[in-house]
Design brief:
A hairpin with a 4-residue loop joins strand 11 and strand 12. The chain is globular, with a radius of gyration of 22 Å. The protein contains 14 helices and 17 strands. It has two domains: about 130 residues, Aspartate Aminotransferase, domain 1, CATH 3.90.1150; about 260 residues, Type I PLP-dependent aspartate aminotransferase-like (Major domain) (Aspartate Aminotransferase, domain 2). About 40% of the residues lie in helices and about 15% in strands. Strands 4-10-9-8-7-5-6 form a seven-stranded mixed β-sheet, sandwiched between helices. It binds ligand 7TS.
Length: about 400
């Protein structure tokens, strides 16, 4: 079956507009993706027809809202093939999920001299929460190195797993480089020493079919907003036994069973970790986004986006003065690059002047920039609605930029 690109593009109303008199070319999907009508309509219909607070009302609207919220939990469970809805905790995003694990699992299980193992390609949100925990508990952060292609050096990673390692926390797909880590192998190596593994799936989830039972990861986290859903909702998956053993995170309504002034007892999973009124509408809309993605099919998406990446990479290689940062053999649809003598921020501004949205900066991965000895990169990141024609226009604009700067 041919990939229904025209139909998909028509579902995203924002793409139809002009920016600076040119058709918008949106290539900042790794930061956040755009939303289809199905998600936008879901939000507005939910507010028009179904909205009420959840888990507490006997009235019809509250029950309807609760059902829709819980349906999303079920859709997420199926989407990542979790064993049970109890393993799906709704949070604000990947960042909150990692902080939650650090301040519950981490506080309870990581002590003086213990080690947490990450990689050199982590987003700040999978570095800073561990540094905070290390400071609280006197633990040590270990970092597995990468090579010049931006790939994890697996043997060094494996060698860093020690008797002191209490958690391995690694990115599934790097936001700055696009590298996809050999996570199955990494998980098996950690499990051989009984060490749990957290995968940061913020970038992987829109691009790769994820099966948490097949991967056998202990935690998997992601944000809705990179998956064509709204911002402000994300997912923490954890194996049930681990989540049950973890202390609660925030205290408040919905996460309790009984409360007296002397003592409170907590609700079971998943509510134990969902204190307070959650982001009800956006969670329901995450369900609509998952329906939308499933309708296209993760396999079709992976094939199409890989074609875009291969096409863009070949074109970029033909441009004199362009250096690709991150050339891993296993890579998702992200093209990070620098241009000789042109600062990435200037690249971003100049491309915006012809309607092309990319990101320029350190991408919240400053250690990656340090490793490649660049202050920043320009990053074009592709999604289900991008086309090779857009990539042609990007490459033409880059070529033009080089000509102007070198004139
Ligand atoms: N982990 C990775 C690998 C990410 O790429 C991001 C966001 C996060 C975690 C944090 O996600 P959040 O939704 O909680 O903020 N990455 C980016 C990016 O590359 N550009 O903007 C945000």
């Amino acid at each position: 079956m041919t990939y229904p690109i025209e139909k998909i593009r028509a579902d995203f109303p924002i793409l139809a507009q002009k920016i600076r008199n040119k058709p918008l070319i949106y290539l900042d999907n790794a930061a956040s993706s755009q939303k289809p009508n199905q998600v936008i309509d879901c939000i507005s219909n939910f507010y028009r027809e179904d909205y009420a607070n959840i888990h507490r009302g006997v009235h019809t609207l509250s029950q309807r809202a609760t059902d829709k919220y819980e349906q999303t939990r079920n859709k997420v469970k199926d989407f990542i093939n979790a064993d049970s809805g109890k393993e799906i905790i709704f949070v604000r995003g990947a960042t909150e999920a990692i902080n939650l694990i650090a301040q519950t699992f981490g506080l309870a299980n990581i002590n003086v001299g213990d080690e947490i193992l990450i990689t050199a390609m982590e987003h700040h949100s999978n570095i800073v929460p561990w540094q905070m925990l290390c400071k609280q508990k006197g633990a040590i952060l270990k970092v597995a190195p990468i090579n010049q292609q931006g790939e994890l050096i697996y043997d060094k990673f494996k060698a860093l797993i020690s008797d002191k390692t209490k958690l391995v926390a690694v990115v599934h797909m790097s936001n700055a480089l696009g590298s996809i880590n050999p996570v199955k192998k990494m998980i098996a190596a950690a499990h051989a020493k009984n060490i749990p593994v957290l995968l940061d799936g913020a970038q992987a989830i829109p691009h790769i079919s994820v099966d948490v039972q097949d991967l056998d990861c202990d935690f998997y986290v992601f944000s809705g907003h990179k998956l064509y859903a709204p911002s402000g909702v994300g997912v923490l998956y954890g194996k049930q036994a681990l989540l049950e053993a973890m202390p609660a995170y925030q205290g408040g309504g919905d996460m309790i069973r009984t409360v007296t002034f002397e003592k409170s007892t907590y609700a079971g999973l998943p509510h134990k970790f969902e204190a307070g009124t959650p982001n009800i509408t956006d969670t329901v809309a995450l369900g609509a986004a998952i329906d939308y993605i499933n309708n296209i099919g993760m396999d079709a998406i992976a094939i199409y986006e890989n074609e875009l990446l291969v096409y863009a990479t070949e074109k970029a290689r033909q441009i004199n003065g362009l250096t690709i940062i991150g050339d891993a053999a296993e890579k998702g649809a992200i093209l990070s690059f620098t241009l000789d003598r042109i600062h990435p921020h200037d690249i971003g501004t100049m491309l915006d002047s012809v309607g092309i949205a990319i990101r320029a900066g350190h991408h919240c991965a400053m250690p990656v920039m340090d490793f490649f000895n660049v202050p920043a990169t320009a990053r074009a990141s592709f999604a289900i609605y991008n086309t090779t024609a857009e990539i042609d226009l990007l490459m033409e604009a880059i070529q033009e930029l080089i000509t102007i700067f070198n004139a």
